[in-house]
């Protein structure tokens, strides 16, 4: 699995179901190319982030889903139209916890056409700081 200029190579990508978290099926099958979202250039990603949340928020919803790369996690966030994705965190590792954390559906200030419910401020922690 690797990235291309056109998008991400993902095995059996599953389109978003509004009643479930977005997922990437890793079973064997045909490989498809998922277009990479414009904001998912790994050169601009923050590094060593260990936690993400809504600034001055509480009880936000999140979904843990598998992803092979940070670009894949980012792309799932951008493609998640309803309830909308506020932020994402990719934490690679060898654990039973899925690697991609997507925060969703939290209303906030700064309403725009692309974010009609607003865009809350995101806070994060880096390496035990």
TrEMBL record:
- This protein's source sits in the domain of life called Eukaryota
- The molecule here is called Uncharacterized protein
**Originating species:** Colletotrichum sojae
Q: What is the lineage of its organism?
A: Eukaryota, Fungi, Dikarya, Ascomycota, Pezizomycotina
């Amino acid at each position: 699995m690797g990235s291309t200029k056109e998008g991400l190579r993902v095995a059996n990508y599953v389109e978003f179901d509004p009643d479930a978290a977005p997922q990437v099926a890793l079973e064997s099958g045909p490989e498809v190319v998922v277009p990479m979202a414009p904001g998912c250039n790994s050169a601009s990603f923050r590094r060593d982030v260990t936690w993400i949340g809504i600034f001055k928020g509480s009880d936000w919803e999140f979904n843990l889903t598998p992803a092979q790369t940070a670009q894949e996690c980012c792309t799932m966030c951008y493609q998640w139209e309803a309830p909308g994705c506020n932020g994402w965190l990719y934490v690679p590792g060898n654990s039973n916890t899925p690697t991609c954390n997507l925060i969703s559906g939290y209303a906030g200030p700064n309403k725009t056409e692309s974010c009609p419910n607003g865009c809350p401020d995101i806070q994060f922690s880096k390496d035990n700081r």
